[in-house]
Automatic annotation (TrEMBL):
It comes from Thermocladium modestius. GO terms for cellular component: cytosolic large ribosomal subunit. It comes from the Archaea. Belongs to the universal ribosomal protein uL13 family. Keywords: Ribonucleoprotein, Ribosomal protein. This protein is one of the early assembly proteins of the 50S ribosomal subunit, although it is not seen to bind rRNA by itself. It is important during the early stages of 50S assembly. One of its GO terms (molecular function) is structural constituent of ribosome. This is Large ribosomal subunit protein uL13. The lineage of its organism: Archaea, Thermoproteota, Thermoprotei, Thermoproteales, Thermoproteaceae.
């Protein structure tokens, strides 16, 4: 088993590293997005791993219904036959869209900040042994009975075929990484 170092990132902290690797597991999507947007505007490169484990607070059925409404019912005024706007389904793209909404992406500094952010499903091999940060203000403390769901659960309910393909390949990748770690 590989040992991972985890560091806590408080509000207003800007670590003195080239690239921040943030583990999105058990982080509330909106709070994480605002912190990442602030760091990117300050000039830091931010990598978010495990985007599928980010948390959306609220009842699962109401959240799923909101996503389905965005995907199917919303139509444009000038072309009612076409659905739009384009709504992301994958967790990494949902999180990227949330971060983009907190940036002035129509201005040059917002475009540059969005370019400094990378979001991944799972943990790529290149970031597997790097120290990960946990954002203190965005971390979701699980209280028994509080309603929440992960972005992966929403994705599995909306697009099960794509989710199944990804899950199978990611499980194979994790087994290969663990096997390689045991051999060393």
């Amino acid at each position: 088993m590989l040992e991972l170092s985890i560091q806590v990132l408080s509000k207003g902290d800007v670590p003195d590293v080239d690239e921040l690797v943030i583990d999105a597991a058990n982080h509330v999507v909106g709070r994480l997005a605002s912190t990442v947007a602030t760091l990117a505007l300050k000039g830091k490169r931010v990598v978010i791993v495990n985007a599928e484990k980010a948390v959306v607070t609220g009842d699962f059925n109401s959240i799923l219904e909101q996503f389905k409404v965005k995907l199917t019912i919303v139509r444009t005024h000038y072309n009612p036959e076409r659905t739009g706007p384009k709504t992301p389904r994958r967790p990494d793209r949902v999180l990227r869209r949330a971060i983009r909404g907190m940036l002035p992406y129509d201005k040059q500094k917002g475009k540059a900040a969005l370019g400094r952010i990378k979001i991944y499903l799972g943990t790529p091999a290149s970031y597997y042994n790097k120290p990960k940060y946990v954002v203190k203000g965005a971390y979701f403390h699980m209280i028994p009975g509080s309603p929440y769901t992960t972005l992966e659960d929403i994705w599995r309910s909306i697009d099960p075929k794509t989710w199944a393909v990804w899950r199978e390949s990611y499980d194979k990748f994790k087994k290969a990484i663990e096997k390689k770690g045991e051999q060393k």
